[in-house]
Amino acid sequence: MPQPQPLSASHIGSFAYLTVKDRLPVILTRVVDYLYREKDSLGNNYGKAAREDCKKVIGRCSQLKNEMQTNKDLLPLQAHPDPSYPYDDANIWNRYLENYIRVTGVAPKWFTAPWLYVECYMYTRIHESLYLCNVLKDFDPFMDQKRNALIDSKEAIEALAVHVLSLCGRISTFSQEQLKQHVIKLIEISLWGNRCDLSISGGADKSQDSDVLLLLDKLQSKILVNNSESLWQLLVALPEDQRDIVLVLDNAGFELVTDLCLLAFLTEAGFVTSLTVHPKIRPWFVSDTTHSDLTWTIEKLRETGGSAGVLASKWQSYISNGRWKIVNNKFWTLCHDFADMKEIDPELYSQLSKSSLIIFKGDLNYRKLTGDLDWPTTTSLEHTLRGFCPAPVLAIRTAKGGPVVGLAPGVSERTAAVTHDWNISGEYGMIQLCTFS
Ligand SMILES: O=P(O)(O)OC[C@@]1(O)O[C@H](CO)[C@@H](O)[C@@H]1O
Ligand SMILES: [Mn+2]
């Protein structure tokens, strides 16, 4: 079967088109407005030079918005000025750019290049506008939004923490069947946590304001593929010393908490020998988790106290004793999809190959798993991975614009008949496992 075309803003009226035309400029405008509003307080906190930096970033982001809206060529990136910065990736981005020109004969433009590339490129340019600064080089313009999203979800977080702590305290009393049901429930909670992303809403409030546990039954019918049962079979079959789980994170805020709750329960229940968590190395798709978001979240919840505080201390102790590792890698913020990993980052591919299960959270990871190609929805997930098979893959995402694959025949048609924007609204989700067996 020939490979489908990449999703692209060249298809007028498509979600990719509307994203580049409407949503991305709004996100850039918000960055500009935010820096404009905060320049005095940044000046007070970081010194006078920060005010100058603000002006420069505002200028660069306004320029970027103009390039986007007038469909200019995508320009090469400037290298990070600090030669010791470990995640400089400008050369990898520029190589992609040159290769695109070599293959297609034209420069990539905002409305014609693959959507995955264009959207990742925008966040890299935002980061570039910052790392070229003197004082604000490490500043995250989405930090306040991410922090507020966590604070606004505090009741839902506390309700979840009460539940998870109570489960952790009773593990030895559970039958295998009960244990399975609890694991599956926590996977579903982590799935619905993925509805809370700030890039889809252009940065508008996206917190969890209700107890997600009470919603699970009602949401069952919105899970279009649920391989939780097969996942359970995989988990129980893993030898005790080979339960090495990797989680490629998505959003901070409520989603991150649901992910850490799932991981804590798996750890407490003995399903984890080692766990590696991969955050992003730059501000990314507004709400994605960076290392410092992760650290801040744990600290903030500990400070807040209650059951969430107790749970956060548990997470902290796993990190401190080395059972959970946080690994920073620049591959996750490149434009490359995961089928390119073997070539672009063979070391990461080989590290991942040593794990027993890799969990990918969220819509963007799903887009990168499937290459963001316009697959028929009945194509198998394994086929769409195009040779990316370091270890069993578990994809957990709500559908917010990327491809949807692995559906039974008729499911997409039936779902579209009920909800016309079913594949972009985040209302429907999937838990898909690929074991390559
Ligand atoms: O990866 P996440 O946080 O689940 O979603 C990120 C996201 O909102 O950004 C893209 C559109 O801008 C979509 O592909 C996707 O829905
Ligand atoms: Mn995200």
The count of helical stretches stands at 17
Report the major sheet: 7 strands, mixed
The value of Rg in angstroms is 21 Å
Tell me the fraction of residues in β-strands, as a range: 5-15%
Query: What is bound: which ligands?
Result: 1-O-phosphono-beta-D-fructofuranose, manganese (II) ion
Structural class: alpha/beta
Task: Offer a concise description of the structure.
This protein has 437 residues and is α/β, with parallel strands linked by helices. The chain has 2 domains: 15-131, Up-down Bundle (Transcription Elongation Factor S-II, Chain A); 143-434, Uncharacterised protein PF01937, DUF89, domain 3 (Rossmann fold), CATH 3.40.50.
Report on this structure:
This protein is of the alpha/beta class. The chain has 2 domains: 15-131, Transcription Elongation Factor S-II, Chain A, CATH 1.20.930.60; 143-434, Uncharacterised protein PF01937, DUF89, domain 3 (Rossmann fold), CATH 3.40.50. Helices cover 51% and strands 8% of the residues. It is built from 17 helices and 7 strands. Bound molecules: 1-O-phosphono-beta-D-fructofuranose and manganese (II) ion. Manganese (II) ion binds at residues 197, 199, 250-251, 285, 287-288, 362, 364. Keywords: Hydrolase, Manganese, Metal-binding, Methyltransferase, Nickel, S-adenosyl-L-methionine, Transferase. One of its GO terms (biological process) is methylation. Its EC number is 2.1.1.-, 3.1.3.-. InterPro entries: ARMT-1-like_metal-bd_sf, ARMT1, ARMT1-like_metal-bd.
